[in-house]
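Question (not urgent): is this output format expected?
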Amino acid sequence: MEATAYETRLAGLLAARRMLGLESTDVDDGLPVVSQPAHAAAPPTRRLSAAATGRLSWVLVLMVEAEPQRTCTLHAMQLLCDVPGLLDAWPVAGRGARLHRAARARFTGSRDDELRSHGLELIALSAPKAGADAEGSGGAAGPAAGVGDAAGAGVAARGEGQWAARLAEASAADQPVPLRLATTRAIGSSAALRASAGPASMAEASGGRRDGVGLWLIALALLEDDDDEVRGMIIKYFDTVPTANAICLLKSGYLFVAAEFGNHHLYEIAKLGENDDEPS
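Got this back:
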């Protein structure tokens, strides 16, 4: 992955993906598909050691920062999106902030829709670690905790209150579908949206800032997107029930909610939603 030839780097990224137990990705390699002979039995897959995993995470961050070849950059970003815990395997101070800066540069400095989509998702995924790095370094821990929890991005750790505006721009109807899908995943990475049931509670969780409410309004707007996949992705984050005295899950696939206030509710479970990449 640190070789001069990009074909070698790409082969290393694909091998790392297999060693991490991940399925092949739909990243556009820009290369013709070559059919492979069928094997009677799949060859054993080698697993990465803890040291190798740490080294891999370091190399991936470096590739997000400065990899000149588009295909390798996309595969590196996809790996970090698919395995967010890779960043924890890199025992270097400031790792979250470094990835956060690199992802933001890819998002703001590129016109490539796929690079911007992956960059947007990595901004959200790296935000909590970027905020932790700011606290650990004695930086602006207070502002980072407030907006970082609400908007899901560490940009606020450096005084930038533009995260909600960037998400609103990326979620607009005239933006390509991959970028709008990345917006839904970025919103889903926000602790405030997952923990709250409405704009009021989100505003409280964000310390009274507008970022939480703005994030909620963007999510509501995405519910009216003209693409089924975008709507199906964002609706997962609105999965909530009224305040209840008791909840009973029946083997027949129904959920009964004895509401504390108002009428009781009976829901039928259509899908378990075990795959985060699929609409629930």
